[in-house]
Design brief:
Length: 543
């Protein structure tokens, strides 16, 4: 048995244990939460630093892999030390290795050795089988309604003022379960198609906006610029072809589950028009316009292809992609210019059907309070610091006069983080800020980290889609029985779809078998999955 198979077996065993041990090891509900339905008192202001000698424990990813360049633990960083000083609460952080967080989470829950706070994805598509409602029912985490009302005045105020946010953070029966990571409107789109503008200018070609224009450009890159892989894309086991719906959305469908114009949940690979998506990629693959090695291209390999001139276009991040390319090449090749492009359509002037879009809440970074917590009130007070004015500045900008300076309210990052010869601004900031986690991303931060006008223009272009309308919310809550059925059906469906899509694109499967591919998806339970998601979406819309 290879390493990957052993890990998979270990995770499957742990998941099985969760359902048995959490029932056997039933915990007593927190007395604070027993009063949630009847206690209507408003939260009182919390004075920081809190006068306490109690410590808290916190489990979750470090938040940004860049911090690992400097520290192995959030608590050791300038940010962690400053947070400790300001809140008066000593928090002991435990970080699972990057890429092993799901496995470590399963083992932790199965062993019933839970820390006070757990940062992970507690939503429907997250790490706990059955999602947040099941985790509450199993006494793994506690509902937060009364704790937020009485001990988290900053978050409580936010939820009262923003009903859309409140809706995202509840179960269908109205229970809050996480302290969230909240995005501002400027940080909800940060990934999309980009292209070598200097090549376009040299060839006398406009920035492509339609599929036909893209094909013309990619062919020119191959024939006249010698690009071995004109369009390079990232492929991963979790996301498949990581295109953020670029090219696919042109056919008014999507990579996976989405919401149609009629408000109904649909599955892209079962749409009749998805065949046109496959035919497009099959053609581009055969002609060498799509990277022949796309199925084994990770982010590092993708970056190398762009920076070496093997590729002239990709779909990637605003900072980790576009900014890093411009930064890396400004000394090596002053003519190098990368720009964002609109999500392509079939007809010029159309609004793209779908594209990259993140909802206001980032599902993977919510923090739940575990049922093992001896002082949930203190945990809520500590977490709430991030949603106040002082906490917002610490989490977003860091420490005054170290990572940022303020001049009559105008904030600027210091040269210490902005002009380091080895690390980027984002990497340097990882020591002083949280970047990912339970807090609100400040719009000023989102704009301050952009170094190039190409980035601001890219955000505008990538945001001009109907993605919000068509993206299936991550916040729908299937019932416990529905979740069990989804767990059985969706894994097989996704694996089959990825396997067949690769075969179709690479010519290993005759396109004449496409109808059989759709029929087999139905045999794997797709109609039942759609029924469950639709019922969950309908309940969500009624919250």
């Amino acid at each position: 048995m290879n390493k990957q198979s052993k890990r998979m077996l270990q995770c499957m065993t742990a998941v099985t244990l969760i359902s048995t041990l959490t029932i056997a090891c039933s915990k007593q509900a927190s007395p604070v939460e027993d009063k949630a339905a009847t206690n209507k008192s408003q939260s009182a202001a919390v004075t920081y630093p809190i006068n306490t000698k109690q410590t808290l424990s916190y489990w979750g990813l470090m938040g940004n892999s860049a911090m690992s360049n400097f520290f192995s633990n959030i608590g050791e960083s300038p940010f962690g030390k400053e947070l400790n000083k300001r809140t008066g609460v000593q928090v002991n952080f435990t970080h699972p290795p990057q890429g092993q967080d799901r496995e470590q989470f399963n083992l932790m829950v199965a062993s019933n050795e839970l820390p006070d706070m757990i940062e992970t994805n507690w939503f429907n598509n997250g790490v706990y089988p059955g999602g947040s409602q099941k985790a509450i029912n199993d006494k793994v985490i506690i509902p937060l309604n009364d704790l937020i009302k009485k001990n988290a005045p900053n978050l409580n105020k936010l939820l009262e003022e923003d009903k859309e946010l409140a809706k995202m953070l509840q179960t269908d029966d109205g229970k809050y379960f996480v302290f969230p990571m909240v995005r501002n409107s400027f940080s909800q789109v940060f990934n999309g198609p980009m292209i070598r503008k200097d090549w376009l200018d040299e060839l006398g070609l406009p920035v492509p906006t339609t599929i036909d224009e893209w094909e013309t450009v990619l062919r020119a890159f191959k024939e006249k610029k010698g690009a071995a892989a004109p369009l390079s894309i990232i492929y991963s086991n979790t996301a498949g072809m990581d295109l953020k719906e670029a090219f696919i959305g042109a056919y008014k469908t999507a990579t996976g589950f989405y919401v149609g114009d009629d408000g109904k949940v649909k599955y892209g690979p079962s749409d009749k028009q998805y065949k046109d998506v496959i035919l497009l990629f099959r053609k581009w693959y055969n002609e060498g316009l799509l990277d022949k090695d796309f199925a084994v291209t990770d982010p590092k390999a993708n970056n190398n292809k762009i920076l070496s001139g093997q590729s002239g276009a990709t779909v990637y991040l605003l900072s980790g992609g576009l900014q890093s390319y411009l930064e890396a090449m400004k000394a090596k090749d002053p003519k190098f210019n990368m720009v964002g492009t609109p999500f392509p359509t079939l007809t010029k002037g159309e609004t793209p059907f779908i594209g990259h879009y993140e909802f206001k809440v980032e599902p993977s970074r919510g923090v739940a309070i575990s049922a093992n917590t001896k002082n949930p009130e203190l945990a809520a007070q500590w977490l709430d610091y991030a949603y106040g004015k002082d906490g917002n500045e610490l989490f977003n900008f860091g420490i005054p006069n170290e990572s940022y300076a303020s001049n009559n309210g105008n904030l600027t990052f210091t040269d210490k983080v902005n002009k380091d010869p080895k690390y980027t601004t984002i990497q340097m900031l990882s020591q002083y800020t949280r970047q990912n986690g339970p807090f609100m991303i400040d719009e000023k931060y989102s704009k301050m980290i952009l170094k190039y006008p190409q980035q601001e223009e890219a955000v505008k272009l990538w945001s001009a889609t109907d993605a919000k309308k068509h993206t299936l919310p991550s916040f729908i809550t299937p019932t416990e029985s529905e979740s069990k059925e989804l767990a059985k059906l969706t894994t097989a469906l996704k694996s089959y779809k990825e396997e067949m899509q690769l075969k179709f694109i690479m010519g290993k499967e005759p396109i004449e078998n496409y109808d059989k591919f759709v029929a087999q998806q139905n045999q794997l339970g797709l109609p039942k999955i759609l029924e469950i998601y639709q019922a969950a979406l309908d309940r969500y819309n009624k919250r």
